[in-house]
Amino acid sequence: MLKFENTRVSYDGKALALDDINLVVEQGEFVGIIGSSGSGKSTLLKTINLLVRPSSGKIYFDGKDITKLNNKELRSLRRNIGFVFQDYNLVDRSLVLDNVLIGRLGYKSSFKSFFGIFTDEEYESATTALKQVGLGEKIFERADQLSGGQKQRVAIAKTLCQRPKIILADEPVASLDISTSQTVMDYFKKVNEKKNMTILINLHDVNLAKKYCHRIVALRKGKIIFDGKAGDLSDEILKTIYD
Amino acid sequence: MKSLRQYMINKKRYTLGYLLGFILILIFLGFKVNFSFINLYEGFPDMLNLFRRMFDPNLSYGKEVFEKLMDTIEIALVSSSLGTILAIPFSLLISINIAPSKSISKILTAIFSFFRTIPSLIWAAILVSVFGIGKFSGIVALTIIAFLMSLKLFREYIESIRENQLNSVRSVGSNSVQVLRYCVLPHMMELSISVFFIVLETGIRSATILGLVGAGGIGQIMWRDLNHLRYDNLSTLILILFITILIIDLVSLFLRSILQRSSIKFKSIKSYRRFQTLKIICTPIALLGLLILLFNSLSISYDRFQRGIKQGEVIVKRMANIDISYYPKLIEGIGESFYIAIFATIIGSIFALVLSYLSAYNTAPNKPISIISKVITNTFRTFPPIITAIIFFRGIGPGPLAGAMALSIYTTGVLTKMYSEVLESAKGNIQNSIIVTGATNFQSYSHGLLPYTFPTFISLALYRLESNIRNSTILGIIGAGGIGTILSMNITWRNWEQVGLLLLGTSLMIIIIDKISDYLRKLFS
Predict the structure, then answer these.
(1) What is the ipTM of this complex?
(2) Does B274 touch chain A if contact means CB atoms closer than 8 Å?
(3) Which of A41, A162, B330, B401 has its CA 20 to 30 A from that of B188?
(4) B178 touches chain A (CB under 8 A)
């Protein structure tokens, strides 16, 4: 469902953040992307919903080349792609419920969303999503009242509410402690297994990646240097990644 | 070992050099603002007398004052709310991270930063020539200032929203209107109320002096009393102003702290949705109602307004046609304003450094001293400097010294408050790490807290310099030195070509000082 073809990204026109990426991801895969900081993990994810534009090459999503989309098509592409950030990026002053409803914006007209008009189904799906991440109780709390792990779970609920075909998570547990990380990762796993959701997740913790992901892609200086089953990741390969 | 000795000798030399240079600068500045201990000493009893009279207010005078006071408060309230409301849409246009067009944002920013260099009293003086004497001119002048102030605050908030935060709303497929509504606006509502109060605190101070140029409010009778040498009435007025400003500051502080804590608790989706519908219906109605109310209180006939606009056109055209030959007066004027501002900033900073040590809870020798110095500094910053200058007139007569002293006192008050807050919010560890070596409380301040927070102090002092430069340009309106004197004269004489030059020169000076201060701030931080 997702295919990179000779994708290159450069921020300044000189150094390449992504160098000739070729990658195919199938429906229902749980892919962990590892690599040291600056290896291009974030850039890789951000090119998929075009928060970062590739300088050359193609990216296919559901068989369509997304690098050629116009603004309107881009927005409908983005609503099919859930994105979870490391720093949660909730709107702190809004309620948890409002934050989850943001997931529905891609489906709404400017007029309706400006006046905050949401349908019964949308409220229903927001509460269901919150219950799925175990935060049914926190629905009317303000987002800044939550702990880090809870905030990330709200971000996941927002993404679920969006009903995406794929979820991209950029270091979702990097700011969390070990046990909270496990909880958050468990929710990703649950979503992957129960809904057959495709998930691409950036992790700097190799052990977490080995534990949760079926497939691991390792990046170094913008290039893929390993792509295979989690079990095939040898210590020698790990050494080259982090050297 | 030699290098260490060298270091010690050099250190001594540098310290001595800095101290000497500093003293020389002070003497030079003191000379420039006609500083004289003898004058101050001789004038002191007269000023004390004025204060003594405050405790024996002329109560029969109260009624007339009360009416004008209500006018003043109305001007402040109306202009602050209008300015805040108008600033919201513009802030969306100029904040660089969400601006629909970068070039529009840049053009608007340039225009507004030029307007920001013109103090409220000058706006008022010009507007009085356009729309006539009365509170309309005052309201418009303060609305302009309130607008520019809130615009700056809103813009700072919006530009502090991280790119990732905006991206996270964009990444669900939302368009720019939706990003605004769900990422920027949620906090704007709450913020605008606290911005309103911040603006109001400045507004009430400015409103009290508008009358000096005939733009309504209590300043009008204050100016009359001053000219008639009715110091008994003047002391009553100043007392009433003091109490009013204090009350408004306290109410503002109280409401802002309540707002920060309050939030509505919902029980079910149903009650939440009902509240949302109510909000959507009520917000525009309330806003519209408020605007109608505000415009109603402007109290100007359409006829007069049109006449004013026509007159304004002529004035602007004449101002644009600046009279270059007038520049010697300009240089003389802005020079004096500049020296007054620098003098006040340095003197104010020195006193603030001492007073903030005494008033911060964590550094003061004991609690009573801290409370006493807090009361004193808060009194210092209550009055607009122009009113303090009037008090100095009583003692040392008009002139730059009165202005410089008044501005120094105001600077001391504001800077002490800000810096002692910085001291109080500093981590206890910094002090403790010095105290554990057996040092005294003062040593823990001078070797721990002070070096740690000094860059912040410098940056605060530079902000004060920027504000002082603006203030020093208006002191002259009542004859307390600086460019304000010739500026207000030329406005009264309708010499718009000269006014144009003076305004341009003043703006340039302020912009240059702002740039330098900005550069220095970055250097020190």
Answers:
(1) 0.85
(2) no
(3) A162
(4) yes
